[in-house]
């Protein structure tokens, strides 16, 4: 089937640039949308066409569904790629594209809606025999219901937003007396962040690794996985470093977690690219956590070890093409990791927007930089603080770490503060280097101002 003639990117910054580059290689014309604050952004310069969709506020621009649909119609774009964040997992946006005759590069509306309902997704996985963390069978209706579950499974537990993501709407309860405050704080945050205060409960596993599996699925029901990523280096449930493969994985573990991810995708009748996230206990037991119905920030590490361009595959699948490979065709080679370079104070993780008076990214063997930043660009205060994704690749983890340290030391950014010093600390930590870490690593090993 023929690919699209023109595609609109409903996003900004580095992911918009990444999609534009994939489209250029596929021979597809691109349309960039931008807010008033992004009129000098790199994705606007690189796209074939660009159109302003509103003022700086994301609610009036990048989250403005009518404005984005109008931009697609005005420019005759046949497809829309949502990237990640903003409207990427909004079923109303996917539905608006469909009713306007525009192809949404992603899963179906039904799948996005189901993926966004974490409690319901858990129920489906449980019915399909996919292990889930002990907890509520569905949403908890009130604090009394939450208490009953806690008495059944014991503390600690974690309260989560059913529509959650990015660490929002989550609270850990270590004692029953803390339930009232944690429940209402999680509910308020969930309502403010996602428009829904619906919550569910899981047993909290403190000594765990966060391991996710990249999947691709086409219209004909073919599903493949592209290996696992370890996302355990986190702060307040926000991923900071990702790497692939998971260094504790045996061939048996990799086969098992990959098969579970494919089974989960088929249970949801998945299509396009997605990520199935799991909790891995110190015992090696694997539990389904959630499925993200979009491309991930950390997708480059998978691309580095498989040689598969995930953005191109997304576009091909959306155009109706079947997968051109099967599971046995996916080969894994070497080790890759990604550091998210943010415009933040590295000691307190407070955003530091401003003008870049110097921006010289690193290079050399095994180094990739995905960014939309350039010298003189003003990082606006209105959006996520990510300014670059620094990716290293080596024949093994040791070489990937050495190359990442070199690249961090070469990265020259002035005019703002960044998280580069933080990553240097992590990559010099003996526990990180030995692979002896879990999701508590930052709190235990790295000194950060509270």
Give the beta-strand count. Answer: 20
What is the structural class? alpha+beta
Low-confidence stretches: none
Count of helices?
15
Approximate strand percentage: 25-35%
What is the CATH topology assignment of the largest domain? D-amino Acid Aminotransferase, Chain A, domain 1
Task: Name the CATH superfamily assignment of the largest domain.
Answer: ATP-grasp fold, B domain
> Given this structure, which CATH class of the largest domain is correct?
Alpha Beta
CATH architecture of the largest domain: 2-Layer Sandwich
Question: pLDDT average, as an integer?
Answer: 95
Q: How would you characterize the largest beta sheet?
A: 8 strands, antiparallel
* Radius of gyration, in angstroms, nearest whole number: 21 Å
What overall form do the CA principal axes indicate? Answer: globular
Order of strands across the main sheet:
13-12-9-10-11-14-19-17
| Domains, number | 3
Distance between the termini: 54 Å
Percent of residues in helices comes to 25-40%
Task: Describe the overall structure.
There is one protein chain. This protein has 450 residues and is α+β, with helices and mostly antiparallel strands. The protein folds into 3 domains: 6-105, Rossmann fold, CATH 3.40.50; 134-203, Dna Ligase, domain 1; 208-445, D-amino Acid Aminotransferase, Chain A, domain 1. The protein is 33% helix and 25% strand. It has 15 helices and 20 strands. It has helices at 13-26, 42-46, 65-74, 91-99, 109-116, 118-127, 143-153, 179-194, 251-267, 299-306, 310-318, 397-410, 420-426, 430-434, 441-445; strands at residues 6-9, 29-35, 49-54, 79-81, 103-104, 157-161, 171-173, 199-203, 208-217, 223-235, 238-244, 272-281, 286-292, 335-342, 354-355, 358-360, 367-371, 378-379, 386-394, 412-414. The strands form 5 sheets. An 8-stranded antiparallel beta sheet has the order 13-12-9-10-11-14-19-17. It has a 5-stranded parallel beta sheet with strand order 3-2-1-4-5. The protein is globular, with a radius of gyration of 21 Å. The model has no long low-confidence stretch (mean pLDDT 95).
């Amino acid at each position: 089937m023929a690919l699209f003639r023109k595609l609109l990117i409903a996003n900004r910054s580095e992911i918009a640039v990444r999609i534009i580059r994939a489209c250029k290689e596929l021979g597809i014309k691109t349309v960039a949308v931008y807010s008033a604050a992004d009129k000098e952004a790199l994705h606007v310069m690189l796209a074939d066409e660009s159109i302003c969709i509103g003022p700086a506020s994301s609610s009036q621009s990048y989250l403005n569904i009518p404005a984005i649909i109008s931009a697609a119609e005005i420019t005759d774009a046949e497809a829309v790629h949502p990237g990640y964040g903003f409207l990427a997992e909004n079923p109303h946006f996917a539905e608006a594209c469909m009713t306007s005759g525009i192809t949404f590069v992603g899963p179906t509306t039904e799948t996005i809606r189901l993926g966004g309902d974490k409690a319901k997704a858990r129920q489906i996985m449980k019915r399909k025999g996919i292990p889930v963390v002990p907890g509520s069978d569905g949403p908890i209706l009130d604090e009394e219901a939450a208490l009953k579950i806690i008495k059944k499974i014991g503390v600690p537990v974690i309260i989560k937003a059913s529509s959650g993501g990015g660490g929002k709407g989550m609270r850990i309860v270590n004692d029953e007396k803390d339930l009232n405050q944690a429940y209402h704080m999680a509910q308020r945050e969930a309502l403010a962040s996602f428009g829904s205060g619906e919550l569910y409960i899981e047993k909290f596993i403190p000594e765990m690794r966060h391991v996710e599996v990249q999947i691709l699925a086409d219209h004909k029901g073919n599903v493949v996985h592209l290996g696992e990523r370890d996302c355990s280096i986190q702060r307040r449930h926000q991923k900071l470093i990702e790497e692939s493969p998971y260094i504790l994985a045996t061939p048996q573990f990799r086969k098992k977690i990959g098969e579970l991810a494919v089974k989960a995708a088929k249970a949801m009748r998945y299509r396009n690219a997605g990520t199935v996230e799991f909790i891995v206990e110190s015992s090696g037991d694997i539990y389904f956590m959630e499925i993200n119905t979009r491309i991930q920030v950390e997708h480059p590490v998978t691309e580095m070890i498989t040689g598969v361009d995930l953005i191109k595959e997304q576009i091909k699948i959306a155009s109706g093409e079947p997968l051109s490979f099967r599971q046995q065709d996916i080969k894994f080679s070497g080790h890759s990791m990604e550091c998210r370079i943010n415009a933040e104070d590295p000691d307190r993780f407070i955003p530091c927007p401003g003008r870049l008076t110097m921006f010289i990214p690193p290079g050399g063997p095994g180094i990739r930089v995905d960014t939309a930043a350039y010298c003189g660009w003003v990082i606006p205060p209105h959006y996520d603080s990510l300014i670059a994704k620094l990716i290293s690749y080596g024949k093994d983890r040791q070489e990937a770490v050495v190359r990442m340290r070199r690249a961090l030391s070469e990265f020259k950014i002035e005019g703002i503060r960044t998280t580069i010093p933080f990553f240097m600390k992590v990559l010099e930590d003996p526990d990180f280097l030995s692979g002896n870490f879990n999701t508590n690593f930052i709190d235990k090993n790295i000194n950060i101002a509270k």
